[in-house]
Inverse folding.
């Protein structure tokens, strides 16, 4: 990881995640409403709805990570996602991170709790995608042209 970047801790990351979960819940309600409307008010098949939710979640998280390095929750808590080099994440890194985050959470959140025992505050999805969540107190990091 770039020397000038400070890894974010468990509490700050968890707080940002709570913000994002609340936002995502609202987005999924809208997606469900649209799916019902497009299906003539009839029940949408569960498999279609699950696929739609997965695509929506991927679009939300990967989209924010790729364009600005921050979800809205991360922005509120002054966090930023970077690759090990300190640069903005690539599409590959964002995709691997999303898939690995699904694994982290389907394992009862153990992947996220891993932050507490990892010496560099990394969750499973950080390690697998070779990314870090760092503190962005002033917004002056490698993404904004600082050395």
């Amino acid at each position: 990881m770039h020397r000038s970047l400070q890894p974010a801790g468990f509490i700050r990351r968890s707080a940002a995640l709570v913000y994002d979960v609340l936002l995502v819940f609202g987005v999924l309600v809208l997606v469900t409403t649209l799916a019902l409307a497009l299906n003539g008010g009839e029940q949408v098949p569960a498999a279609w709805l699950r696929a739609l939710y997965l695509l929506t979640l991927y679009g939300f998280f990967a989209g924010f990570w790729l364009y600005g390095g921050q979800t809205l929750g991360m922005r509120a808590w002054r966090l930023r996602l970077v690759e090990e080099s300190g640069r903005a994440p690539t599409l590959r890194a964002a995709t691997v991170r999303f898939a690995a985050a699904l694994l982290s959470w389907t394992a009862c959140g153990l992947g996220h709790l891993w932050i507490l025992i990892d010496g560099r505050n990394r969750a499973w999805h950080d390690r697998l995608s070779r990314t870090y969540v760092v503190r962005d107190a002033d917004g002056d990091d490698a993404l904004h042209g600082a050395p």
Remarks:
- The chain is about 55% helix and 5% strand.
- The chain has one domain: 10-140.
